[in-house]
Amino acid sequence: MNFEFTETQLMIKETARKFAEEELAPSADERDEQEKFPAEAVKKMGELGFMGMMVSERHGGAGLDTVSYVLAVEEISKVDASAGVIMSVNNSLVCWGLETYGSDYQKEKYLKELAAGRMLGAFALSEPEAGSDATNQRTTARRDGEYYVLNGTKNFITNGSTADVVLVMAATDRSKGAKGVSTFIVEKGSPGFVVAKKEKKLGIRSSDTVSLSFEECRVPKENLVKEEGFGIKFALKTLDGGRIGIAAQALGIAQGSLEASLKYSKERTAFGHPIAEFQALQFKLADMATNIEAARLLCLKAALLKDQGQPFGPAAAMAKLYASKVAVASALEAVQIHGGYGYIREYKVERFLRDSKITEIYEGTSEIQRVVIARSILD
Ligand code: CAA
């Protein structure tokens, strides 16, 4: 066992911290208020190698490990959880899947651009009737000569309207159920690819969440990922890694809540003392710090297992389940510590509370994480 980070990992963490402070912090509240996508910042994240962190250098990525990725997502999300999810989806759900299962043509044409941050990706699995029940895909793809023709609707798609390419799961043979689903790379602007509805959300309001519809949308057959029938395995395997990214995002929100609370409780006085001197406050801060450290260790363990090539799905589910719970609890406690100031927009903890909730929902609800964990321990 070794709890020390490498010099590279520490350098990545510091670069992410500095970037978040300088490039994200000044506009995070305004972008949240205006529901504005951080286009410039995402471009800079690409230049820093943050959009394809674990992709090999020969495919345009930074060639880093998952531990570095966790450190970077935490630092970014500590300041701006919207930027955290934009980054996590591109890295974990899009780049990882393409590097692992994509063809040479797909890697050359799409992965290199996505990993370098010159293109942005989205992942379209969820549908109105396929959320937790992900295998119940209604979107269809029928073969027509050199093309597949897609029809259907996807919803809650992060990066959906800003993405240059979307990985779309669709049934190529509905009679085969989960074994009849396939994955397609669909370019923005393809005829029949329609951005249907932008969602107005409780939190992560600066990230882009939309419904997409496919109406006789023609996709070249070269854009099928791996083979027909591989779509559900592709999606669930990819989500195993995605859950490490969301766990790290949750960790960032929790750490941001703690740091804001530490600062405020040293500055705010009541009854003639800084409130940090009261044991009631100290116990809250101590509990937050302990829970956050436990969440961090779960995230890093899942990341390390992935880096070592060991099975990591249940560990990722545990990390996401626990870190998301800690994010919500820490943000809630931070609002309480700030009192009335915690309830108004001027103090960031109000945003942290709104942002935290989604980490218990997307990339598999907490209930689904428990299903994954229970299956692994009952095996
Ligand atoms: N890796 C690879 N394959 C897997 C897998 C994994 N982790 N988990 C299951 N599979 C395989 C199974 O082996 C099975 O294949 P076989 O029949 O060949 O053995 C197939 O996938 C179907 O699996 P199950 O029979 O276990 O399916 P199920 O319906 O019982 O349950 C589930 C699966 C765990 C509930 C799954 O549907 C699930 O994780 N649901 C949640 C979906 C989710 O996380 N959605 C997030 C949307 S994306 C998002 O949020 C992104 C964003 O914008 C931020």
Oligomer: single chain
Residue-averaged pLDDT: 98
How many domains make up the coordinates? 3
Small molecules bound: acetoacetyl-coenzyme A
Q: Helix count?
A: 10
The rough form would be described as globular
CATH-assigned homologous superfamily of the largest domain:
Butyryl-CoA Dehydrogenase, subunit A, domain 3
* CATH C-level category of the largest domain: Mainly Alpha
Element-level helix/strand string? HHHHHEEEEEEEHEEHHHH
Between the first and last Cα atoms, what is the distance in angstroms?
27 Å
Q: Residue share in helices? A: 40-55%
Unreliable spans are none
Helix-strand blueprint:
Blueprint: H1 7-34, H2 39-47, H3 66-79, H4 81-101, H5 104-115, E1 121-124, E2 140-144, E3 147-158, E4 165-171, E5 181-187, E6 193-198, E7 209-220, H6 231-267, E8 269-270, E9 273-274, H7 279-307, H8 313-338, H9 349-356, H10 366-378
Parallel strand pairs: 1-4
Antiparallel strand pairs: 2-3, 3-7, 4-5, 6-7, 8-9
Helix pairs in contact: 1-3, 3-4, 3-6, 3-7, 4-5, 4-6, 6-7, 6-8, 6-9, 7-8, 8-9, 8-10
This protein binds acetoacetyl-coenzyme A.
Structure description:
- This protein is of the alpha+beta class.
- The protein folds into three domains: 114 residues, Acyl-CoA dehydrogenase/oxidase, N-terminal domain (Butyryl-Coa Dehydrogenase, subunit A, domain 1), CATH 1.10.540.10; 109 residues, Beta Barrel (Butyryl-CoA Dehydrogenase, subunit A, domain 2); 146 residues, Butyryl-CoA Dehydrogenase, subunit A, domain 3.
- The protein has ten helices and nine strands.
- Helix 6 packs parallel to helix 8.
- The two termini are 27 Å apart.
- Bound molecules: acetoacetyl-coenzyme A (CAA).
- The site of acetoacetyl-coenzyme A has 23 residues, from helix 4, helix 6 and helix 10.
